[in-house]
Amino acid sequence: MKPVSRRFLVFLGVFTFWTGVWILAAELVGSELLLPSPAQVLRRFLALAGTSAFWLTVGTSILRVLSGILCAAVLGVLLAILTENSVICKTLLSPLMVLVKSTPVASFIILALIWLGRGVLPAFISALMVLPIVWINVSSGIAAQDPLLLEMARVYGFSRGRILKRITLPTVLPFFRSALSSALGLGWKAGIAAEVLTVPQPSVGKMIFESKLYLETTDLFAWTLAVILLSLFIERFLLKLVQRIGGKEVCKHA
Questions:
Q1: Is the same domain home to 93 and 17?
Q2: Is 91 in the same domain as 201?
């Protein structure tokens, strides 16, 4: 049996098991208000997905959160370059990054709400959660460059651009992909959490908050399912994009 088929069968078995547990739990509870069944949640999700309001809400949240993630990715790379070339900058920025990484998301949301508008806050929180991860990983990638290769490139008169393409990018890109893999889900969940607390309009977080407020448990599960599916889609799409770019660079290097 091929490894892909085996992984799919394992996934199918695990999915079937936990769906069965959910169905059994819903039957035992016997109340849609407390725990809707998978069929009820799926029907509600499909009903929501058939409306233009759903896609407007989802699209707005995606743009809001992704803008924060992409800004953090760019800033994280620039700060990694800066700190790996300056001991002073690294000494000054390291405690700040540790502080950002260690502070609970809710604390940042409440503090930032004092200074920022509701529409901007989710993007800011997403960026704040992603930034330390990108910075740490890219810094590690820059530090992992082979000094002998760099020395040989200088001896042979390689320009900075050629060193970047032939040595730096092939070394750093795997670290950057690893950073995105860890940070995308975190950034997306942090952005949605910020939306739940700040309820900007329109937003997925607002719909989750209202579902909880009005005890519409099936809607709450349906919107949560939307968040999970969007998280998987965004992560796969961006990682594939970075992998494709990295693949081209490795081919050039070869």
A1: no
A2: yes
